[in-house]
Amino acid sequence: MSDLAQTNVSKPLLGTLLHEGVYRIVMQRPEKMNALSRDMMSALSAELSHAAEDPEVRVILLGAEGKVFCAGHDLKELTLARGDTDGGKATYQAIMRQCSDLMQQIVRLPKPVIAVVTGVATAAGCQLVASCDLAMATDTATFCTPGVNIGLFCSTPMVALSRNASPKQAMEMLLTGESIDASTAKDFGLINRIIPRDYLDQVVQKYAEAIASKSAHTLKVGKEAFYRQLEMPLDQAYDFAADVMVENMMAKDAEEGISAFLQKRKPEWSDS
């Protein structure tokens, strides 16, 4: 694993650090506003895959260096593709598919992913925040889907945004392209908590460690079930959730957790 304190000479796209089961992934291209270039998306996808397989990783924090959390797609990269014989269509299709796969990878990851936003999250950067299971932000963080301002409706960010905010709130962001502050983002349901910058690292770490202390098996089962039932009609959702609950009850960690609770002791998870 790389260290967050890298020199600028060979600084990778991402910095990582594992502590107490909490795996920090930090985008390290502030000079490019941490844009989701093809290389950045590939790096994120590879790091998430690694985190998913590492048994020491129980919770993932996704953050960024600089004043911009993520500026969305790399517009210079998109513009350069216009010189292709097809006007860039094949490249655009590949980039949008790659981005969609990355967002779905986060949702399907068997471990919780928490966005830590310290700056501007715009367009696909806002989509990235919305795709994470939880999101923490400083009081100076801002969010927007400004594609409409440059003739490009934020259609793919819309998918994640509309699954966080209410339809009218999501449409307000998509149609106006205006930025909203952290307080409004919390009201919209885009983020969970607002934390003063000076206390962000310690509060987020403690918050993540609390989640990391749970059974990894239980978190995996719960996260998968949560997203699957969201798209189901009410009766199907209850049938599905009841089946999940029964299977969960049969797990070793459920037996251990209930026994520990009744015996007033700390559970010893086997993650199974």
Task: Explain what the structure shows.
There is one protein chain. The protein is an alpha/beta fold and 272 residues long. The protein folds into two domains: 14-212, 2-enoyl-CoA Hydratase, Chain A, domain 1; 216-262, Lyase 2-enoyl-coa Hydratase, Chain  A, domain 2, CATH 1.10.12.10. It has eleven helices and ten strands. The chain has helices spanning 38-53, 75-80, 89-108, 124-131, 155-161, 167-176, 182-188, 200-212, 216-230, 234-249, 252-262, and strands at residues 14-19, 22-27, 59-64, 68-70, 113-117, 120-122, 134-138, 142-144, 180-181, 193-195. It has a six-stranded mixed β-sheet with strand order 1-2-3-5-7-10, sandwiched between helices. A hairpin with a 2-residue loop joins strand 1 (14-19) and strand 2. The longest helix has 20 residues, at 89-108. The protein starts with 13 loop residues before the first strand and ends in a 10-residue tail after the last helix. The model has no long low-confidence stretch (mean pLDDT 95).
Keywords:
47% helix, 2-enoyl-CoA Hydratase, Chain A, domain 1, globular, alpha/beta, four-stranded mixed beta sheet, Lyase 2-enoyl-coa Hydratase, Chain  A, domain 2, 2 domains, 272 residues, 11 helices, six-stranded mixed beta sheet
Tally of individual domains: 2
Query: How would you state the average pLDDT, rounded?
Result: 95
Which runs of at least 5 residues are low in confidence (pLDDT < 50)? none
Total number of beta strands: 10
